[in-house]
Amino acid sequence: MGPRIRHIAVRFALLLAVAAVVPLVAYGIVSILSLQSGTRQEVIQGNQNVAMRAAEEIRRYVTTNAELLKALAANLQDPTLTATQQDRVLKNYVLQIREFREISLFDEVGATLATSRIGKPRVDIPKTAPILVDNVSMSGIRVDEDLLPSTLFAIHMMRLGEPAGWLVGQFSLEEMWRTVDRIRIGAHGYALVLASNGELVAHGDPDKKAMVAQARNMSEHPLVAALRAGRDKPGPVASEYLGDNGDTELGVAATMTPLGWTLIVEQPTREAYANAGVLRRQLLITISVALLAMISAGYLFGRQFIRPILALKRGTQALAAGQLDARVDIKTGDEFGDLGQAFNTMGEQLIELTENLKRQERQAMFGRIAAGLVHDLSHPIQNIGNSTRLLLRDDVDAESRDMFRRTIERELGTLKHFMDELRNIVKPKPIERFAMDVNASVMDIVESMRAEGDRVGVALETHYAEGPLVIEGDRFALGRVYRNLITNAIQATEQGGRVTVSTARTGNRVEIKVDDTGSGIPPERLSAIFEEFVTTKRRGLGLGLAISKRIVEQLDGTITVESQVGRGTTFTLRFPASDDQSIHAAAS
After folding, report:
1. 550 burial type by CB count under 10 A (0-12 exposed, 13-18 middle, 19+ buried)
2. DSSP letter at 300?
3. Are 218 and 207 in contact (CB under 8 A)?
């Protein structure tokens, strides 16, 4: 009887184990499959919601300002307003609504009737306006002189059924850039905006902002093709595709009607589905442990294992849907309790990390721009200030006054050319060439920068070739190149070091070398040192060497760099030499 009882007990225990294990196994399989499918759909839906909200915010931002311009147009049609009153209304309007850089009123033939500018209007009646925003014509997006996106709004005004002129406003889209920068999904999810012709006009990834300055056309983007294919199906589209960096991206796109723009949100799939992978592994481990526990402990302990899993599933689904404040309440006192606490801690840290990243990104962006401008403008402004103070002294002779006046004029010309270069970063204009003596042009810049070297304790030495070295170039443009190279050399050299500037004639080439005894440049950075938005310093926009290389190449020259870490760096400029005697006379 005893063996039979034991046999029945074993069978009963096995029956209880099977009764507990089978539902648990079935639940585990269903949970894993539903987690894979549900999490993917929830991630896509969450990203689509972000894209739709951001697209609607940008659309509303543009259309609202278009409505404001329409209201202004209605006010200006008042026949009792004089031209002076119209002019005052436009100026007050621009002061109150900062998004409009300029608003001007023209008659039917394009003559200016009133403008918000002090001088001549910079805007004109647009020739074509392919986009209509609530009956307001809007031109394509362009980058203005401040390297910010802008567009033109135009309203054809009517009075008593007859054409009464045009109201044209330059509308800044800087707020759109800020909106795009604020859109973050996870740690590596960014947003970008494409114009109606596929041109990239905004990108939230700091490493890809240079693509905006390059006016990259992305008409062949997979999501753009998907939108074209599904024009009859309103709403956002989603797709997985291979990104530029070789990673698989989860992208969603939403169109902005009637602007014709497209907002795309991209996130690496490894990050988008990371929670699903972690939870899948956790579920597998939990199910395995539960199986062993069920076999030994039976049905009574089964439900205790299922409850934490369900809680974690609900919390994970809520977190995947974008509810970062979702928490789980697991107080079992075992690993599930630790897992719930870790989940809650992860949620808190995720919120804090997201806020910190947003704040640091804004601070870094504005700090970099400010530091870059200070880097390029401080020296000319300092020279102008010093010369002005010396010019006002009573004990200065006429020759010195003339020298100070020339210094001020030279540095003002340098500032003007700097502004012109900023305006022409995307579309540079050709450099005018004139015969010039390299020794004289280099000497002017070196002498203007000696005070800077003395201030930081860096000796500035020169070695000039005998006789005139004549090339065909632009004295102001090359002066900027010399100044940039010498400034970089001084900043890279510690106190007591030396910067040497030398000129030489080698065959049919003229060489200018800037050599320093500074810290040097690591080899891995040398290949990208002339690229835009790349810098080895903590300050600066990363445009100095890129602009210098562009100037040198426009003058048929070359610029090379050699560097050893801890030994120093040498930049070498080479230009075709001119042996024409008439050119020598012009240069002298």
Report:
1. buried
2. G
3. no
